[in-house]
Design brief:
The chain has 67 residues and is mainly alpha-helical. It has one domain. The radius of gyration is 23 Å and the shape is elongated.
């Protein structure tokens, strides 16, 4: 049995990042991570929520300042 077969998922991930960091350097590793781990969620939907909240806060601040 190879050592890879006994590693946990986190140990394997850490080992792989160590190898990639050594071979690609810090910039290459950061670029690899940004390309292969795109994140999650729906940016477009979330952006509309953030903008709506910001508009609500801005609107309530202008009413408070006017009083």
């Amino acid at each position: 049995m190879s050592p890879l077969e006994t590693m946990t998922d986190e140990e394997l991930r850490s080992h792989a990042f160590s190898i990639l960091g050594r071979e690609l350097g810090p910039y290459g590793l950061a670029r690899f991570i940004s390309v292969t781990y795109p994140g999650s969620g729906d940016y477009t939907r979330d952006r509309h929520l953030w903008l709506d909240e910001k508009a609500d806060v801005s609107g309530s601040q202008s009413h408070t300042q006017a009083a």
